[in-house]
Amino acid sequence: MNSLRLGSKFFMGDAVDIAQKLIGKTLVRRFDNGNLLRLAITETEAYRGEEDLACHASKGRTLRTEVMYWQGGVVYVYLIYGIYWMLNFVTSEQDFPAAVLVRGLEGINGPGRVGKALQLDRSFYGEDLSVSERIWLEDHEKTPTLSTSKRIGVDYAGEWALKPWRFTEKQ
User: What are phi and psi of 156, to 5 degrees?
Assistant: First the structure.
């Protein structure tokens, strides 16, 4: 196993902290033909708990959100507009729903484009990042400088929409 691979322990913490720590980490995707794609994560957003009205878990435990209640270190994907698969990494302890949305990768801006470039589908739901042969994260020596802002597209969440839980690498 690759010694640079981030194990499940990395994801056992607060979603806001992990969203920041993910910036600059390398996302690796192995496609069915064996080709590898390695890109740095450039933008993330944190979603934390049932009280966070922007979080899918704010409506409670459902078939869609079940994986968010699992122990951190697994993939949460969901389909929007019937077209785009959104990539999230579950964080925190079991039974506390939290996840980090990957909004951007090196050269790829927007979570819909991320899902398309990675060729995600429903089969990634619940994938364990510590052992997956299709998708994983690797550490690096780089410590990027971060910029924070409010999350995008969650205006319906009232005060929760204003949380500065969106992170990007300063250019």
Answer: -60, -15
